Amino acid sequence: MFAAYAMSIGVGDPATNYTVIIDTGSSNTWVGATKPYVTTETSISTGEGINITYGSGVVLGKEWLDTVTLASGLIIHNQSIGAASNATGFAPFEGIIGLGPTSDTNRTVFNETTGSFINGTIPTVMDNALAQGVIDTEVLGVSFSPITGNNSNSSINGQLSFGGIDQSRLVGDVTYTPRTSKWPASRYWGIDANLTYGQTALGNDSSNSGIVDTGTSVVVIADDLYDIYLDAIPGAYYDNVTQLTAIPLDSVSSLQNFTVYISGEPFVLDAVTQLLPADQNVEAGGVVGLRYSYITPLGWNTTSGLFDWVLGMKFLERYYAVFDTQNNQVGLAYTNHTFAAVS
């Protein structure tokens, strides 16, 4: 199974190109995981260090200001860039482009003399793009589409729109919802939503809060919500090898819609779109005689005081997503591949 969506960015002048994970679930941009950061005449050391913790690993290194090239005509100057000296859990990628809210950069830079974290945020790529007139509005449109075939690592099937949305990529209107005020989802692109599986509510009557995150591979829900999902599918279990939900073939026909209600509008993963295509089983580490669902447990319950779910790339392959800093909101829209079968 494809682990992440990535893009190539240039750092410095002349630029060194790095393949970095596209991550709306974090906000710092850094390189050096598998290819060292290369300084040029545009590189300015801040004299500070970086220490960033992710779900997949930890990054340590130094902070620089440098020129970042996103694409032709999308060039940002004096952007904070982390040069990793120690980065685990990110291979084969060479870094991350952080497209989350500015708030998530707080206490990611530290004083190398004292070792103390510095309170305060640093401008993100999107912040500087707006400030330097590279984009007219701080809006990011994300279009992914389902991966086909059993060689998913070679697929190029996404588009980022910096400074707006691409209407040709969506069907109908965008449904917007404000960023949540509930901590800690409020630190990220977090929103309130109601989840159901079939006719069964996942959670209480009030909205759960969660995160819309391009850097998470699948859909993860709080463990008590996951237990409801699992119990409704005969013979299903969490598979530690694939880190997906294994489903016996004779239970596939009983799968029901997994629905996320945002501002009252339903965004559905039907039976087909919940499942890894069968011809990708082996690549994901699975076996031929099972099917595998992208809906998996988060690792804590809704009573933990943390966020309740994450809508990752397997959800976002079915919907167009808008991350609107200007209006402090997230939007979703249907696409031509929302319900398309993939083989």
TrEMBL record:
Q: Which InterPro entries match?
A: Aspartic_peptidase_A1 (IPR001461), Aspartic_peptidase_AS (IPR001969), Nuclear_transport_factor_2_euk (IPR018222), Pepsin-like_dom (IPR034164), PEPTIDASE_A1 (IPR033121), Peptidase_aspartic_dom_sf (IPR021109)
Question: Could you name the active-site residues?
Answer: D23, D213
Annotated GO molecular function terms are:
aspartic-type endopeptidase activity
In this chain the NTF2 domain maps to 311-343
UniProt keyword annotation of Protease present: yes
Q: Which UniProt keywords apply?
A: Aspartyl protease, Hydrolase, Protease
The GO annotation for biological process reads: proteolysis
Q: Which domain of life is it from?
A: Eukaryota
Domain spans labelled Peptidase A1: 5-333
Q: Which PROSITE patterns match?
A: ASP_PROTEASE, NTF2_DOMAIN, PEPTIDASE_A1
PANTHER family in the cross-refs? BETA-SITE APP-CLEAVING ENZYME, ISOFORM A-RELATED
Q: Which family does it belong to?
A: Belongs to the peptidase A1 family.
Q: What is this protein called?
A: Peptidase A1 domain-containing protein
The lineage is: Eukaryota, Fungi, Dikarya, Basidiomycota, Agaricomycotina
